[in-house]
C-alpha cells in the first residue's frame, strides 16, 4: 500500500486531475449562483455543493489509471513480481484509490463551500454552515467520489487497455446510461451515475432512492467490479 500511495502522489496526472476538478467546481458553482434568484435557498445550496459529486468522474479516472496505467507503461510485471499475490495488489490499489477519491471529494467540497460563500457575500448574503442540507450534500459528494474511484479500479483491472478503459467508462456515463435509462424506465435510478446524484440529493424528487439506499447499491457495484477484476487479474497472462 505504501508503494501504491507513492505511485499515486508522484504521478503528474493525479495532481492535474485534482487541479482541473477544482476549476470545474468553481465554474459550476459560479454558473449556478449567477442564474439563481434565490441563491441562499436550500435548493440552490444543494445544487451548488452538488458539483462536488460531479468531479467523481476524475476519481473514476484515478482508479482506472491505478491499474490500467501500469499495463500501459508495462510496470505491472514488476509490481506482480514484487507482490506475487495479485489479489492483494488489486485490493491495495482499491484502498489507495478510494482514499484518493476521499481527498478529491474533501478538497472539492472546500472549494465549493468557499466559492459559494464568496458569491453569497457578493449578493449581501451569507452561507448557513449550520444547514443540514449543506452538509448532507457534502457527505454525499465525498461518498460519490470514493465509490467512483473504487469502481475505477475494478474497470481498470477488467479492461487493461488504458484508452479502452477510459472510453468505456466515460462512454457508459455520458451515453449508454442515458439510453439504457430510457429503455428501462424507473429502474434507471439504480444505475451508477443516477445513484451518485441521489447521494447528493438530486434530482429533487421523491422518486429518487434515499441516500443510504444509493450508498448501499454503489457499494455493491464496487464489490462486483472489484471481484470481477480480481478474478480476471489472477488468471491473466501478462507476459505479452
The total domain count is 1
> What would you call the structural class?
mainly alpha
Radius of gyration, taken over Cα atoms and rounded to an integer in Å: 19 Å
Helical fraction equals over 70%
Number of helical elements: 11
What order do the SSEs take from the amino end to the carboxyl end, as H and E? HHHHHHHHHHH
State the shape: globular
| Proportion of beta-strand residues | under 5%
Describe this structure in words.
With 240 residues, the protein is mainly alpha-helical. It has one domain (2-235). Helix content is 79%, strand content 0%. Helix 7 runs antiparallel to helix 11 (211-235). The two termini are 26 Å apart. The chain crosses the membrane at residues 47-68, 89-122, 142-175, 212-232.
Fold blueprint:
Layout: H1 2-10, H2 12-35, H3 42-49, H4 51-54, H5 56-72, H6 76-82, H7 86-122, H8 132-158, H9 162-184, H10 192-199, H11 211-235
Helix pairs in contact: 2-3, 2-7, 3-8, 5-7, 5-8, 5-9, 7-8, 7-11, 8-9, 8-10, 8-11, 10-11
Concise summary:
With 240 residues, the protein is an all-alpha fold.
Features:
transmembrane; 240 residues; membrane; single chain; mainly alpha; transmembrane helix; ABC transporter permease; globular
